[in-house]
Design goal:
The protein is of the alpha+beta class and 183 residues long. The protein has two helices and twelve strands. It has two domains: 55 residues, no CATH class; 113 residues, Rieske Iron-sulfur Protein, CATH 2.102.10.
């Protein structure tokens, strides 16, 4: 290099702050493919993906209603005289040999019997009758159910207890059926 070199004459040696040409350009990058994905195309793609997710969610919700249901055969539970008014009787249902499934039979009025699954709809803990509070209670997370219809009164369960249909035949209570949803 020569001794009489002036930095103002050659922009290669100037910094970005002193060079008016580099830092004042709005978009200094050259991109020949910037028209491949424009804003309209990106918006179309986003709306399409959102529509596909909505359609899949709707399909899954529809499939939950269309699942096959199976009915359980009737089963003798207990003599009606053995359950006092306001009393409870726990029984295995639908399978007598299955230790996980059981039912709760309540005698609300003189001849008014109701039965529910004894498994909480929140996290499958056992549900028990509390005569002092007149509620079915899940002690795991303090879930409370209405004894008249099995609806949730309090706690984290979001669904009512599945009801077991019962009949009083000549002084003996029978579990007639219950609908179970196959997973």
């Amino acid at each position: 290099m020569s001794a009489n070199f002036d930095a103002k004459d050659d922009d290669r040696y100037a910094s970005n702050r002193t060079s008016a040409g580099r830092w004042q350009v709005e978009f200094p990058y050259e991109w020949d493919a910037d028209d491949l994905v424009g804003r309209r195309q990106m918006l179309r793609w986003s709306v399409g993906v959102a529509g596909a997710l909505f359609a899949m969610t709707s399909l899954l919700a529809g499939m939950s209603f269309a699942r096959t249901r199976r009915r359980v055969a009737e089963q003798q539970i207990v003599a009606a005289a053995d359950v006092p008014v306001g009393g409870v009787h726990y029984f295995r249902y639908p399978n007598v040999n299955d230790k996980w499934d059981f039912g709760v039979l309540l005698r609300l009025e003189n001849e008014d019997f109701v039965a529910y699954s004894g498994v909480c709809t929140h996290l499958s803990c056992e549900v028990y009758w509390d005569p002092a509070q007149n509620e079915l209670i899940c002690p795991c997370h303090n879930g409370r159910f209405n004894p008249a219809n099995g609806d949730v009164i309090a706690g984290p369960p979001s669904r009512p207890l599945p009801q077991i249909h019962v009949e009083n035949r000549n002084g003996t209570i029978y579990a007639v059926d219950q609908e179970f949803v196959d997973a």
